[in-house]
Amino acid sequence: MQRNPQLNENGELQHLLSIEGLPREILVQILDTAESFAGVTEREVKKVPLLRGKSVFNLFFEPSTRTRTTFEIAAKRLSADVINLNIAVSSATKGESLLDTVANLSAMHADIFVVRHASSGAPFLIARHVKPHEHVVNAGDGRHAHPTQGLLDLFTIRHYKKDFSKLTVAIVGDVLHSRVARSLIHGLTTLGAPEVRVIGPYTLMPAGVEALGVRVFHDMKAGLKDADVVVMLRLQNERMRGALLPSAQEFFKHYGLTSDKLALARKDAIVMHPGPMNRGVEIDSSVADGPHSVILPQVTFGIAVRMAVMSIVAGN
Amino acid sequence: MTKLPDTEKLCQDLVRELKPRIGPKTAMVGLYTGGVWLAERLHKELRIEKPLGLMDIAFYRDDYAARGLKHDPKRTTIPFDVNGAELLLVDDVLYSGRTVRAAMNELFDYGRPASISLVVLADRGGRQLPICAQHVGAKVEVPEGMRLRLKRDDAGKLALALESDRAA
Amino acid sequence: MRLHIKNGRVIDPASGKDGAGDVFIVDGKISNEGGKADKVIDAKGLVVAPGLIDLSARLREPGLEYKATLASEMDAAVAGGVTSLACPPDTDPPLDEPGLVDMLRRRAKSLERARVYPVGALTVKLQGEALTEMGLLADAGCVAFSQANVPLADTQVLWRALQYAATFGFSVWLRVEDAWLAKNGVSHDGDVATRLGLPGIPAFAETIALATLLELVRATRARVHVCRLSSAGAVEMMRAAKKEGLPVSCDVGIHHVHLCDRDLGYFDPNCRLEPPLRSPRDRDALSQALADGAIDCVCSDHTPVDEDGKHLPFAEAEAGATGLELLLPLTLKWGATRKLSLAQTLSRITAEPARILGTSSGRLAAGAPGDLVLFDPQASFRVSAEALKSQGKNTPFIGYELQGKVRATIVAGNVVYEG
User: Fold this and answer.
1) Contacts of C408 (CB under 8 A, 6+ apart)
2) Using the beta-carbon criterion (under 8 Å), do B109 and A33 form an inter-chain contact?
3) Do A36 and B64 touch (CB under 8 A)?
C-alpha cells in the first residue's frame, strides 16, 4: 500500500491535500491550533512571527478571489511573504506545463504552495514533484477536495456544538460537483459524527455516494428533520439550466433553504454555507441573515484554520 | 541525587516577597503549563484585581524551524489592557531564557506595558540570553541530562520534579 | 537455413500438446523433419511456445514519434516475445489511406522484428462520417477496420460501415462506448470516482453501445470483433450473442484482468486507461470470462505515452499503458490465479488471437510460420522503467514482482531477441 502522500515518514502532516485518510489526531491538532490562532486574530496586532522569512506562493490555476484572499491574509498574519500568481491568465496560456510552473517557482525558493486547480488530483501531482522542504496546501481541486474549507466547517461546527458524537449534519444541494461536501463528509466521519445526510435530486448525487458514509435524501423536509447543522452548497450558474436541473427557481422550490424548511431542524440548528451565496437559489435571505446563520463567522474562522494548516505543515 | 526544595514553601515565600509590590496597575501573566499553575496560585493569594492572563508562546518560539509546531498550542488569553500595566510574568523554571524572550515579544503584540518583572519558582542557571528573574523561589542545580518540571496533583498541590531529558 | 531447438518444454496451445521435445524450423517455417541443423538452441529449462500475438499495440508511427518510434516499439515487442501484432489506426494521420498502410508495413518489415498487421480506419480520419476505401486498404495489407478509441457516434454511419464491410467479408473491430454517456468521463462511475471527484463513465455506456452493435450485427451479419470489454454486463451480452450464433468475438486488455478502480490510488495517471478500470466485480467477471471462453483472447493494448502526457492531473493525462513487454508475465499471472494449464493460458495470447487475426501463426504445426518464444516460466523480475525497451514507461505495474522472462524470440526462423 502506498504511503499517504500527505504524511512524512513520521506520520506528520507534510502537505494538506485532502481530509480523507488523515488520522483523527491530526484533524484535532489542526482544530486546536486554529483555536489558538483565533485568539491572535482577535488581537490589536493580528500577526505572529512564526513564518518570518518563508515564502507562500498562491498558485491559482482557477480564479477565486475569496479563497486566495483568505490564504493571503492567513500567510501574512504568520509573517510570511506572499506571492499571488493567477496562472489562469499567465503561463498556462503560454503553454507552460503545471510541473514546469512549479519548478520555476521552486527555483525562487518557495516554502509553501497553495494550489487551486480545476482538475481533481492536481495538488497530488505537484506534491509528488516538490522538494522535501516544500509543502503543498490544496485550496480546492476539481470536484475532489477543499480540505481547508472542510476544516473551517469542522471548526465552526465544533465551536457552536462542542462535540461531534451526537450530531446530525445535513448537506444540501449539488453534492455531485462539490469538493466542499466531500471534504466535510470525510472530516465528519473521521471525527465521529453519527449521522451525515446529503440532500438533493438524483442528478446532483454522485454514484455510490453512500460509500462515503452518508445517508441520501431526496426530500429536503425529511432530510432536515432534527438536523443540528445544515450546510448549504453553492450551485454553480452553469448547472442551473440544462440536463441536471431545469431552472434555479425550481431548484429553490425543492432544495432552497427557507425559514419554513429550517423549522424542521433542531431549534438550535446552525446554518452554514461555503460562499459565495446565491440568495434565492440555495438559500433565502431571511435564513442567510437570520439568527441560525453562522456564515460570516465561518469566514473569520477560515483565516485561523489556514494559519494553523500553514504553520503545521511548514514546521514538519 | 539533588535534593529539591519544598515547592509549597517556595510559593509562600514568593507570595510574601511580592505582596508589597502589588498595586492597582499590577497584572499577572502565567506561561503554559507550569507557569500557569503557579500564576493561578499567586494570583489568588495576592488578590490581584486584574484577571489573570494565560500565555502559550508556541507562535513566538525561536526553534520553530527546527522543531515545527509539535504540541497543540493553547490559546493565549490576556483579559486586561497591557498598555501601562505593571506586569508580573510567571514561569515555573528559568533556564535558557528563550521562553521569556518569546513571552516578552508576544506581550508587546498586546500593547506597551509600564514594566515587566519575571517571577519564577526555580532558577536552574544555564542562561543563553541576557535575561534574569526579579523574584526567584530558589536556585536549583540540575544534573546533566535531566530537566526540572513543575507538577500538580489532583488536590492542586505543586511540586518540582526532576525527569530525564529524553522523556520530553 | 535449419534451426533446431532442443531440450525445451514444447507447448502448442492450438493442439494442447505440452511436453519435452524438439522444434525444427526450416526456411522460416515449422517443420517435422529433423536432420542436420545450421544452428542449435539449447532450451533447457525453458518453455518453447508459438510467438505471442497481440491484437492491439500502438507503434506511434506515423506522426507520434515523440511518444515512441517504430524501432523502439518493435524492440519492445520482441523483448516481450510478441512476434505478431495488430496496430490500431489511431496514428497521425490515421491509417485511412493505402499509401500510409503500405509505408508502415515496409518500414516495419525493414526492421526485421515482429510481423505487423495494420488495422485500417473504418471512417476517413476516424471522424465517423465517411467510409474509407476498405477494399484498397485491404489490398494494402489491412486485416480489419476499426475506429480505435475514437467514438462512432452516428449510428447510421455505423450501420452503413457494417453493411459495406459485410459485403466483402471484412472484419470490423470496435470498442463499445456510448459517446454521449462517456463525454468528459475519465473513470468508472462508482464510489472511487465519487471519492476522487473524477467525472465518471457508467458501465451502461458500454452495454448500451454493445446492444446497439449487436443489433446491427444481427441485421448486417458483419464479422465483428469487440475490443477491450470492461464490464461484467458486456461479458454476459457477449456470452449470449455467441450462443445465439452471431459472428462475433471479443477481447480484453491485460490491465483490466488484473486491476480495478481501487488501483487508481492517489490519482495514478498510469491507471488512466480507455476503457476505464471498473469495479472489482467487473474485473473478476472479465478474468473469469477470459478463462471460460466468453472472452476469446487478451491483448496488451500497448500505448506508449511520453512523460509530458502523463505528468498531468489524472483527467488531463493521456490514456493508456505500455504493455508489450508485460503481456506474457501478466497473462501467466492471470493463468496461475485461474489455475489453468500453461497451454490453456498461452492460447489466449497465441492460438486464439491468431484465429481472430486470420493468420496461420500462433501454432507449432508443420508449415506454420517459424515464430517462437522461449521463456523461463519461473524466472521472476521486478518491473522497472529502466528495463523497459518501449519508449513508454507508463505502466501501473512499475515495481511489481512478476514471473516469466523471455530468453529468446524467433521470427521466421531468425533469432530477433535474446535476453
Assistant:
1) C41, C46, C372, C373, C374, C415, C417, C418, C419
2) no
3) no
- CB proximity B76 to A under 8 Å: yes
Q: Which residues of A touch C196 (CB under 8 A)?
A: 120-121, 144
What average pLDDT score do residues A155-176 get? 97
Min Cα–Cα distance to chain B from A152, Å? 17
Interacting residues of A51 by C-beta distance below 8 A, sequence separation 6+: A75, A78, A79, A80, A111, A310, A311, A314
C20 within some domain? no
Calculate the CA B30 to chain-centre distance.
5
Model confidence, pTM: 0.93
Q: What CATH number has the domain bearing residue C393? A: 3.20.20.140
Residue C33 scores a pLDDT above 90: no
Q: Are strands C2-12 and C17-26 parallel, antiparallel or unpaired?
A: antiparallel
Q: Rounded mean pLDDT of chain B?
A: 93
**Residues of chain C contacting residue A4, judged by C-beta atoms under 8 Å apart:** 266
Instruction: Return the closest-CA partner of residue C66 out of C393, C391, C323, C394.
Output: C391
Q: Is C198 on the interface with A (CB under 8 A)?
A: yes
As for the ipTM of the complex, it is: 0.93
- Cβ distance A38 to B75 less than 8 Å, yes or no, reads yes
- DSSP-derived pairing of the beta strands C414-418 and B158-164: unpaired
Which is it for the CA torsion C380, C382, C387, C391, positive or negative? positive
**Inside any domain, residue C174:** yes
Q: Are C314 and A124 in contact (CB under 8 A)?
A: no
| Residue C11 within any structural domain of the chain | no
Whether C266 and chain A come into contact, CB under 8 Å, resolves to yes
Give B-chain residues touching A47 at CB under 8 angstroms. Answer: 109
Query: Does position C153 have pLDDT exceeding 80, yes or no?
Result: yes
At residue C405, what is the residue type?
Answer: K
Rounded to an integer, the average pLDDT of A170-199 is 97
Report percent pLDDT > 90 for chain C. 96
CA gap A220, A257 in Å, rounded: 9
In total, how many domains does chain B have? 1
Residue C417 forms part of a structural domain: no
pLDDT at B2 over 90: no
Chain B 86-125, residues with CB within 8 Å of chain A CB atoms: 105-106, 109-111
Residue B89: which CATH number?
Answer: 3.40.50.2020
- Residue B20, domain member (yes or no): yes
Mean pLDDT of A132-161: 97
Tally of domains within chain C: 1
What SS3 state is found at C388? coil
The minimum CA-CA distance between A67 and chain B, rounded to whole Å, is 24
Identify the domain containing residue C321 by its residue range: 52-363+378-403
Distance CA A94, CA C328 (A): 43
Q: Would you call A29 and B75 a contact, using CB atoms and an 8 Å cutoff?
A: no
B105 domain residue, yes or no: yes
Residue B2 lies in a domain: no
Residues 6+ apart with CB under 8 A from A222: none
Task: Read off the pLDDT of each residue in C380-394 and give the average, rounded to a whole number.
Answer: 97
Is B45 part of any domain?
yes
In chain A, what percentage of residues exceed pLDDT 90?
Answer: 85
Domain boundaries, position B152: 7-67+75-167
Nearest to C315 among A20, A119, A129 (CB): A119
Side chain identity at residue B38, one-letter code: L
Residues of A in contact with C265 (CB under 8 A): 2
- Give dist(CA A221, CA A229) in Å, integer: 14
Instruction: Decide if A28 contacts A190 (C-beta within 8 A).
Output: no
